Amino acid sequence: MKIALAQINYHIGNFENNIKKITNAITYAKQQKADLVVFAELAISGYPPRDFLEFDDFIEKCKSAIDTIAKKCIGIAAIIGSPTKNPEEKGKNLHNSAYFLANGRIVSKHHKSLLPNYDIFDEYRYFEPNRNFEIINYQKHKIAVTICEDLWNIGDDPLYTINPMDELVKHQPDIIINIAASPFDYDQDEKRKNILIQNVKKYKLPLLYVNHVGAQTELLFDGGSMVINDKGEIIYQLDYFKEDLKIYDLKKIKNSKIPISNCFKKKSSDKIALIHDALIMGIKNYFEKLGFKKAILGLSGGIDSAVTLVLAAKALGNKNVKAVLLPSGFSSAHSIKDAEKLVKNLDSPYDIISIEEAYKSFDNTLKPFFNNLPFGLTEENIQARIRGVILMALSNKFGYILLNTSNKSEAAVGYGTLYGDMSGGLSVLGDVYKTEVFELARYINKNNEIIPNNTIIKPPSAELRPGQKDSDSLPEYDILDKILYQYIELRKGPHELIRSGFEESIVRKILKLVNTNEYKRHQTPPILRVSTKAFGMGRRMPIVAKYLS
Amino acid sequence: MKIALAQINYHIGNFENNIKKITNAITYAKQQKADLVVFAELAISGYPPRDFLEFDDFIEKCKSAIDTIAKKCIGIAAIIGSPTKNPEEKGKNLHNSAYFLANGRIVSKHHKSLLPNYDIFDEYRYFEPNRNFEIINYQKHKIAVTICEDLWNIGDDPLYTINPMDELVKHQPDIIINIAASPFDYDQDEKRKNILIQNVKKYKLPLLYVNHVGAQTELLFDGGSMVINDKGEIIYQLDYFKEDLKIYDLKKIKNSKIPISNCFKKKSSDKIALIHDALIMGIKNYFEKLGFKKAILGLSGGIDSAVTLVLAAKALGNKNVKAVLLPSGFSSAHSIKDAEKLVKNLDSPYDIISIEEAYKSFDNTLKPFFNNLPFGLTEENIQARIRGVILMALSNKFGYILLNTSNKSEAAVGYGTLYGDMSGGLSVLGDVYKTEVFELARYINKNNEIIPNNTIIKPPSAELRPGQKDSDSLPEYDILDKILYQYIELRKGPHELIRSGFEESIVRKILKLVNTNEYKRHQTPPILRVSTKAFGMGRRMPIVAKYLS
C-alpha cells in the first residue's frame, strides 16, 4: 500500500481554498498510484477555527466540504481532519474527528480522545472526547488513526487519565497514523520527535505523521511531517515551513533497516535559524491570507526595527516594505545614518519624516493644560504616538500593514508606548527577547553586513530624551532576559529566582513590571509565536490583580 | 444550625486583602452565633485567577492563606473555595475545591466535578474534574457541597455526561450548598434562579447559594446569593452589586412555608437598570483595584461619551471625572454646546482643547508624502488619533485612566479608529449596543434631564468630515443591532438571518464587517461584560481567516 502524506497550508474558514488544495492533492496522489492520502487535523477548516466552531453554519460548511472531497475519493482513499457533530444527547456538541473516505463516500469517523486545553489550545471548549476506539481496515491493513494530542500522554507526568493507543492496540493494528496541528516553537520539533518515537517503541508499530504548515495569525506551523519505522527510526521527512507531498510504500517502511532518506533541514539546536525561518513564514502568510502585499514600519536606527525590516523584506520582497525614518530633536546623528545604510543595503523604499512640527504643535496645544510641569514620560510618549499617527496615516492612505517592532523584553516590562511604538497589525519580534534579537541580527549578517554593525554594537536607546539609554531604567538585557525567561517560560516564583542567584530587588522589580503591564499587552497586535510561552492567546492573565505587584 | 452566607468582593491575587475580608467575616459570623460561614468559589484567590494558577508560588500562597484562615475557625466552621493540588499522578495538577474548615484545621476537601470551559470560562485549562463524591457531616447535618457548574447540568441539553448531585444524594444529605463564581449578564440572574430551583425540585433539598460580588476587569459579579427552601421557593436573598453577609437558621429554612423575606432588588426584565448598575460597579472596582481615583474621557456631544461620563461620575464621583472637549473644524456648534451642558449638569471638571493646530501640523508634515490624494478616511483617522494623543498625554501627566466610549455596534463593525477613539484603559459601553445606549440615556434621564435631550435626539455622527452621519456608512442602528445580536449573541448564520426577513445584501455586508474587523477588536481595551456574548475573553476569533468575509 502506498500512502501519500499531504502537508498543506490551509486558511481558516476559507473552504473554497482548502477544498481546492485538498482535491488537487488527491488527484496528484492518485496519478502517482497512491492508495491512501493523509491530511492534517481539522484540515477542512484550518487550525484553529476557534469560536467559528460555535456557528452551525460553519459546521455545515465543513460537512459539505467533506462531501465534496469524498466524491473525489474513487480509486484512492483519504484520511482527513474535520469537526463533526456529536450525535449523543449528552456532552459537547462536536468532536474533533478524522474522516476515512473511500469509494466516493464517508466510510467511518474517528474522534480525538485527548483534547489539549493549555497554552494556545482550547479544544475542550468545543469538543467532546472520544470514548469508542475503532480502527480502519483498508487493503488488508489495519490502521490506528490518532489525532495529535492522542499520542502525547506518554511521558512521566500524564495530563490525562487514559492513553488512546492502549485501547486501539487491542484491535491489533499494523500501523499508526497521526494527523496533527502541532504549532512551531523553537523546541517543538525535538519534543515532537521524541514523543512520536516513544509511541513507536511502546507499541512497536510504524508511524506516519502529518502536520499543518503555514501561519494562522500568531500560530506558526512548521510542517516536518514524517515516517517512523517500527524500530523508532525516522526514515522519511517532509519539508519544514513549506507545503510538501510525498508518497511512501508501506512495505518499504516496514522492511527499512536504516534511515533511507534524511531531510532534517533544521535541528532544534539551530534555535536562531529556526526562529528566523518561522518569522519569515509568519509575516508572509499573514499578508497573503489577509490579501495585503505591502508593509510599512518605523525605522529608528536601532536593532529591533532593523531586524524586523530585514525579515519583512525577505518575506514580502524588499520593494514591498517601506521604511519610515521619523527623527526628532533627540535622535542622534548615527540613528539616521544607520537606518539609511540599512535601507540602502536592502534597496528598500524609504522616507524621512520629521516629527518636530507635530511635536511642537502638541506642545503648544497642551502647554496651557500642563501647569508648567516638567518634561517627562508624557512628552516621551507624545513623540512615540506622533510616530504612530504618521505611520498609521501612511498605512491608511496607501494600504500598507504597519509592522510592530517591539521585542519580548520590552513587551514584558512595559517598556513601550501604547498607541505609539506598540502600534501595528502584527508584532514580528514580540516573542523574541532582546538578546535573541541581537543573535538574529548576527545570523542575518553571517555572510555579509546587511544590518549596519553600528546598529548591533551601540547601546540600545529609545532616544526620547537627551542621552537616554535603555539601561537607565532597566537592568542589562542579559540579566533581564534570564529573569524573564525563568518567570514567563518556566513560571518560576520570586523565591526560586532569588535562590538561584538573582538579586532580590531586581527580581521583585521585574516581576512587578511584568504583572502591572498586563494592561498594555492586552492591547498589542498579535505576536508571532516562536517560544513555548508567548504573550497572547497562550498566556492569559488578569489585568486587575495584585500578585507580585 | 445557623449558617452565614458571606458575599464578598475579592481581589485576584491580593491574598492579604482577601484573608482580611474572610477572617473579618468569620469573626463577625461567630459573634452572631453562626455555626458555619460559607464563602464563594475560589474565594481565596479571587475569580478568575487565570494563568496565575500555573505558578507553584501562587498555589502555595493559596494554601498558606487557607492555613491562616483555618486557625480562625474555632467555635465556627467555614466552607471556602480555593485551588488545591491534585495528589494523583495522572490528570491535571489542580482541583477547583471547597475546603471544609473546623476546629482550627482543614477537615476535608471537595472538588468541582463539572468544569465550565465555554464563553469566558477556561476551567479545564487548569483543573482535573472530581471523581470522588463525599459529603460533610457537621452538627448532625449532612451537607452536599457543590461548586457552581456542578448544579448546571440539569437542563435539556446536558453539556456533561454526569450529574454530581446524582452521586452525592446517595449519601442522603439534608442540604445542598453551592459556592459559585457566576458572572453577571442581564439574563443571568433569572437563568441562575431557574437552574437552582430545578435542582431543589429534583433532589428535594434546601439550597444555600453563595456568589461573588464585584468586578474583576471585564467580569462583573452581581452577588444575589440566596436561600431556597425544599419546595423551590427563594426565601432569602443577599444584595445585588454589593458585599453582604446574612445569617440563616437551617431550622427556619426547612420549616418555611412562604417566602419570609423578599429582597429581589432587580428583575431580569429591568435589563437597562441592571446594565446601568453593573457598569457603575465595573468602573468603580476597576479603578479601586488598580489604585486609581480619576478618569478622563473625550466628550464629543454625542450619546456614547455622554452616557460614559454619567456612569463614570456615578462610579467615581463627579469631580473625579475630567471631560475633554476636542473640537475640530468639522465639529458642529451643537456638539460643544451639548457637551458643555452635560458637564455643567454634572458639575464635572472639563477642558476644551482644539485639535486644529495639531491637525494642520500633520497635514503639513504629510502633504509631501500623500501625492495629492484627496481627503478621505486617512484624514478622518488622523483627527481621531490626535484626540487619542491629547487624552493619553493628559492621562500620563496627571494619572487619569482614559475611559473608552465606543459602543458594541461600532466595535462589531469596526466603526472606530484604532489608537484614536478606540483607545482607553477600560471600555465602558463596548458590550452595549447603540440602541441600548439610547435606552441607558433615557433611563439616566428618567427623573430629570442630565444628558441634554439634543444629545439623545440628534442623528449620530462621528463629525470627522462635513455633514457626516453614521447612517452614511451603516444601516440604521435598529436594523444593525438586530442583525448583530442574532449573529453575535445567538450565532445565527447568514441563511437563517436572511430567512428570518433581513435583506440579504445588508446581512452579508454586516457579517463581513464583523469578521474582517476582528483585528481591530484584538487591540481594544477590556470591555465590561453585560451580555451573554461580549467581545473579549468570551469570544475568541481568528484574525487571519476567510469566513463570511
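Chain A has a mean pLDDT of 96.
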